[in-house]
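Q: I'm writing up a methods section and want to include an example of the input and output format. Could you take the sequence below and give the corresponding predicted structure tokens, formatted cleanly so I can copy it straight into the document?
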Amino acid sequence: MTTDLGPLASDFVGLETSYRTGRRPRRRHYLDSAATTLMMRTAQDVSLEFLKHHGNPHTTAHSSARSATAALHWARDVVRGFLGADDRYTALFMGAGSTACANRLAFSLARSRPGKPLVLVSSMEHHSNDLPHRRHSTVLRVPLATAGQAPGAVAMDRLEELLARHSGQVNYVAVTGASNVTGLVNPIHDIAELAHRHGALVVVDGAQMVAHMPVRLAQPDPRRDIDAFFFSGHKAYAPGSPGGLVVKTQLLAGCTPLELGGGIVRDVTESSYALDPDGEVREQAGTPNVTGTVTLAAALAALGQVGMEAIQAHEQRLLAHALERLAGVPGLEIYGPTDLAAAPRVGCISFNLRHMEHALVATALNDDFNVSVRDGCFCAHPYVRVLLKESLQELEIESLSALEIEHLAERRRGMVRASFGLYTTETDIDALVDGLAAIGRQEAHYRGRYDVDAHGARPRNAGAAGGAGAALFSPQAALEAALGRRRAAVGEPQP
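A: Here is the clean output for your methods example:
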């Protein structure tokens, strides 16, 4: 496939990583970007340059500290601009991804709006946009619309019904912008308009949106604004970076921070303390992850240079190719509607090969075809159960005990997921499809090679699976090699 994305599409660390399958090493086909993307080399270069000036930002007494402080302000400006957030919004960085941001919002909004005890959470959420709200509020579930025979995006009529029934009692609606299981996209601005009409806010998990499609939090009609949006840097080509939270500043005004510590106070005495009035300061106790924050902002700035519209169009072409080719694999079931015009998606497809456990399929794809996919329930157990609609009547259970039936059901309670990044090509998708077709044709062969249970698939002997015996990354070996290079550089003898 030709691409109009320019050199950025190949600007990633690890694209040429190879593992041994069979008798020779072959380049991996990395299709697990919904979990973690590869590192953008441009962002890594900016990070390394910053490290030459690294310092703690909590002072302006020396040049390195001033550099770190300026870098943080730059990163906040970049993130707000990338997400179309105006000066009504605050940008914060916290934790290792979306989870810390969701917990912060759930804690703060429950306390700042105590007269609104309810939170509406969609049935397609990742656990990070579900469990924090359960801890701090009473959660009501928003069901999904039906697109043909498959559950689709959030059911807007049911959402409106719930908002009307509990008008004035709903604090906020928590919804994913794009599902990490199916890639299905929710109409977040329509949801915001409905929520605001009934005095509720809208909180969007943007982890699967931010690197895949344009996002504009502030809208010409403020009734369609997004109130809070969070995402994970490690899903936006910046592994090692924090989570990002962009939220309307007024929503955090006067809230007690979730964490207390250094860097967020104006004064501390033996018996009291005074918090800094600046929300961007007050919300981030301790030494911030400046290096990760700079890396994240650099990645987003680079994406912005290419243009998110172009990136989205490229990904949609890949999706169309993948769905067309996967439809030709015998016995393959894709979850969620597949009409991209009627049910928009980002580059994420979950599926199963009929009668084969997801762990067996994913492991065989890795070991024989060097295709890296994920399997399981993807931290979205309720949604996966809705999609599977698993029925034991389809299994051959007449001769099995109750315990054996339960073990069999557990092994099949999940799916395989292929997900795309900026670096994904048709060659990667074709390797996935060809591998699935081969595994389906040779089911008995693969069952003979692996033991499968609820914990995964393992080769029955060390030589049975090529990839399983490949030389993987060893931190200790890498450390020893790096130390050896340093000794050689200064002429020291090797130990």
